[in-house]
Design a protein that fits this description.
A four-stranded antiparallel beta sheet has the order 1-2-3-4. A hairpin with a 5-residue loop joins strand 3 and strand 4. With about 170 residues, the chain is α+β, with helices and mostly antiparallel strands. The chain is about 50% helix and about 10% strand. The protein has one domain. This protein specifically catalyzes the removal of signal peptides from prolipoproteins. This is Lipoprotein signal peptidase. InterPro entries: Peptidase_A8 (IPR001872). It is an enzyme of class 3 (hydrolase).
């Protein structure tokens, strides 16, 4: 999933840069969807445009965190999809920060997906947001990264210790 997210993001950004001029807008599904070529030195909604280096550090930290915790993946394909999509999305925008002008660690992110009354974003941003929604849902519903459910894992531990499992209050 990470490779799919990263490669799709980079391929679409290459397509935008090679076929559009900065600021150009193409109608896709008017009035709800446009391609609008934009370079973003900041974060979401172009916040922090003078602190590009900070976002480079944060993205590097998030990517390392996700990769480190991916080692704990058990049999949960949902967590694999969520962490893979997050890693790929973060890696896509980090690639821009590291290797696009104006320089290493200060690169501008290519954004091009525009919807009315909202920020312009890219494929990496979509993977990041969708993955975080999925990860939050898994946490809310008690699906652990190793594929077990919170209540079932606790009951199994208690039985292994010789105790009786607690009744589920649900």
């Amino acid at each position: 999933m990470a490779v799919l997210a990263w490669s799709t993001d980079q391929l679409t950004k290459w397509w935008v840069e090679s076929t559009m001029t900065l600021g150009e807008q193409i109608d896709v599904l008017p009035p709800v969807l446009y391609w609008r070529y934009h370079l973003n030195p900041g974060a979401a909604f172009s916040l922090g445009t003078d602190h590009t280096w900070f976002f480079t550090l944060v993205m590097s930290g998030v990517l390392l965190f996700v990769l480190w915790h991916s080692r704990r993946l058990g049999g949960s394909w949902l967590w694999a999809l969520g962490l893979g999509g997050l890693a790929g999305g973060v890696a896509g925008n980090l690639t821009d920060r590291l290797f696009r002008p104006p320089g290493f660690g200060h690169g501008e992110v290519v954004d091009f997906i525009a919807v009315p009354n909202f920020a312009i974003f890219n494929v990496a941003d979509s993977f990041i947001v969708c993955s975080m929604i999925g990860i939050c849902a898994m946490l809310v519903f008690g699906l652990d990264i190793d594929g077990t459910r919170e209540g079932k894992a606790r009951d199994a531990e208690e039985q292994a210790d010789g105790g009786e499992p607690e009744e589920d209050p649900r």
